[in-house]
Amino acid sequence: MTATTIRLTMAQALVKYLQAQKVDIEGDIQPLFAGVFAIFGHGNVAGLGEALYHANDSLPTYRAHNEQAMAHSAIAFAKANNRQQMMAATTSVGPGALNMVTAAALAHVNRLPVLLLPGDTFATREPDPVLQQVENWADPTITPNDCFKPVSRFFDRITRPEQLLNSLPQAMRVLTDPVECGPATIAIPQDVQTMAFDYPVHFFAEKVHRIRRPGADDTELEQALALIKAAKQPLVVAGGGLHYSQALDEFKAFVEAYQLPVGETQAGKGALPWDHPSNLGAIGVTGSSAVNTLASEADVVIAVGTRLQDFTSSSRALFKPDAKIISLNVNGYDATKHYGIPLVADAKRTLPALNDGLANWQVSSGWLEHARQQRDSWNETVSIAMTDRGTELPTDAEVIGAVNRSAGEKDIVVCAAGGLPGELHKLWRTRYDKGYHLEYGFSCMGYEIAGGLGVKMAKPDSEVFVMVGDGSYLMLNSEIATSVMLGQKLILVVLDNRGYGCINRLQQACGGAGFNNLLKDCNTVEAGAPKTDFAAHAKSLGAQAEKVGNIAELEQALERAKQSNSTYVITLDTDPLSTTESGGSWWEVAVPEVSEREQVREARKRYELAKQQQVI
Question: Where's the Thiamine pyrophosphate enzyme N-terminal TPP-binding domain (predicted)?
Fold first, then answer.
């Protein structure tokens, strides 16, 4: 007689269930979970650690050096795989768990899937208070893991092993749903991990997940078509949802059918090759003058798969007050932003319907010629900005130009915070749809190196160029050692401008004096802040490394890095003040109403004037 149950610990059942989850990727059935990042402690080593040990062949466990960083790697892996494959991350209770909360918020903001499995205190409470337990005198049920609640799409705490039967399917629903996608957190008390239960065998049957593709409501589709047909000066905004929907072919067909001008968000960049005739470049605060000029004149904006954050909309000041925004988005929450006309549906399924419904519609030749002239002018600006001008301290743009020229057709750049994302959004040229990997929803310092590791694990045949400032490097660099340990080669370019150059520029733009951003403006010992030897530090973590003095030397070092079989770090000093002045648009950063500084009072006047352009 066939057994209908199997006796397992809660941790063993969790691992066995994850092994049974599969995903259909264009007809190829693959594991949904490609692995588990883990840093063990007393809260997860005996229970989940033992379970993962026996599953290592089919569900590999990767040891990391920092809990936040390993979760960043897992998130980047999912992003690079268009949310179709993902990873889990487990920590011990207390500080290990809390270190992952920042990464959970990052995944939540960017709508990226990651399964977080923080250890927790004893459900029985018998040995309380245990090591690393945070005692709440008014509520003994609260643990550090409650911090995950506001930054998780799904949260549960397992206090009985049989609770997995209901919790895990709900977690999988969130992780694989195009609307609710984000971090799922299941807190696992260390004693419950080790408790056994007779689980039904059918609970571990193979489950194949597929992308859900909801179609458009007929009325919403007709309304969108009518507005587009009436448009004289339309503009399309390409968002990250195009990648996650795998709708790039449909998007290209839609754009080419009507020669529509396109602007790309940070997440949407790569939806069209940089040299596609319709691609006018980046949009918004870090955008091209070409796109932003058309955005300020457009009567209809077709926003596809974007949540229209402030950097895209110039804090709601980029588009004309009477412009109609049609928002094609699988998420109704995003589709109704900015008084948008919602078209709540999957992009891959709906773009062909728009294409068919617009048959015989034409955009005015004058608008198309205007777009072409703007695009040509912007591309010339980009070429000049990325040219080595032989300055004493290279600019970010000159460094980006060298790295971009070194990168192959299928290579990838990774970045997240500081001034580099703005320059990269404007300047980086890629024909590869996954060639531009920026985390700019949370703009989290420290994501860069860890994220690069996750991208490399997802795209092992691509060179992964991580561009990172000295501030982010110093904040979280431990996964250099992990990349060397795992044989996942990265090429890091560290731009040392001796401080937080981006925020220093913002501080001064708001009328403030240079203060506490560049190291020279900080409280230090008389000798000043130490000059960090990033090359020596990277070598101590196992990487190959060198420092270069100019762009010509950087280009030569990049060739050596590409020939290397291991992670390679190149560092150079850069200018903290220079940035690409062309392009861009206003971004709302509140300026004090009262100040002793005349510069602040003048900045406040500019701020109040700019706010008059907002559509609120």
Answer: 36-132
